[in-house]
Amino acid sequence: MKNIFEVSSLLANLNNLIDQNVYLKDIWIQGEVTDYKGPAYSGHKYFSIKDENSLIKCVFFKFAHIGSDDFLDGDKILINGEIEIYSPSGNLQLKVRSVKKHGLGDISIEIEKLRQRLEQEGLFDTHRKREIPLFPQTICVITSENSSAWEDIKKVITIRYPLANLILIPTLMQGENCIEDVCNSIDIANKESLGDIILLSRGGGSEEDLMPFNSEEIVRYIFSSKIPVVTGIGHEDDNTLSDYVADKRGLTPTGAAQIITPDINDLRNEINSISLNMQKTFKYNLEFKFPEIEKVKIKLQNIYPRKIELLIRNIDQLEFNLNGKLSDYVNTKINKLEYLKHSISIFNITEMSKKGYALVENQKKRIIKSINQVEKGEKLKILLSDGILSSKVENKIKE
Amino acid sequence: MSEIKSEVNKDFEDFEDNLLLLQKIVNELENQDLSLSETIKLYEKGQLLVKQCNKALEQAQLIITNYEKI
Asked: Is pTM beyond 0.80 here?
């Protein structure tokens, strides 16, 4: 029985075959623009590209235009894109990603040839790309010391990931000696193990400035590096062969610094989340895996309040007793004090004088308590409540 | 360049290991059939690791060194 296809399923199958062919998904074609009448109302560009013998239809969606050269019917262009079969018409077409005018052509073609050769050699294979450490300890940066790229990288990593160490290998990133210096820096980084990741980066510039990063030498040094290499070269729409061979590519220096570093805030959140999770699990384990603990807890909750209540009552009673005893003690003391006060008042001289008692003192102002203290004829003073009597001892009669 | 490498912060060197260990502890607490004392020991160790990780993040300071080519 022969396989009979519906038209749609046949085209779907053919598209699947195309999808599986990596080469057809990233293809470069050069030729002359034809059938192009300018952008459609939607902004998309529909045209064909041809050589002397053949022609292929192209669609260039509006969202992909950024960074590509504009072109007219009859222009010679270099297209990057992917092949597909457009099911509604069954036409083979090229879905365009970028367009370069042929003015730059010769260099672009050379680069493309080199790219294809290196690709065939396996330098760009995904499976050979080295793993990027999740938490790089030391990042070896190969860039120019006085460049905005270096400033951007420091700024990003200071904010995102200050746990790391940065080692800068100052390197010429454009000009005559750039290729040699970059290769040398990659070599030093590897020989001296200067990091667990290499960040090769420079800011945007002219095509000529970026050209060294399309050189076979730099590509091969990146390929041979034992330390994983991440690139951040130029702007978003700059593609160099160094980017193809790198283990990971950032679109700019800032972008490259971001993709190789975790964000410290995310790490904080992760640790908090793990900590909460651990607490929940621990609590769950105690409650459900070890129910005896819960029983003891309930027991404690029941017993201790009663015991505590009892103790509080005892304390209250003791306080009450103590207060009573203290009060008695104080009252006794107060009574005694009153008694003493009264006793003292009895012996107060003024009070005593009022009752007819008197004090006798000699001329030396000493109080006379005995007849032995005086002599006959000695002058004495008798102190009464309202005055003093002067007297003289006429006789001493001992009782 | 041994001087450069020696500047690597010890707290940080441990950070990745501590984080991985912490995740392992949570997994063990969730999945393993542990005794009460093992559960408590693991939990205490986990709490200690959380403290160490947070300390490493709080104290982190980027160290920048320029390599001098000969």
From this structure: no
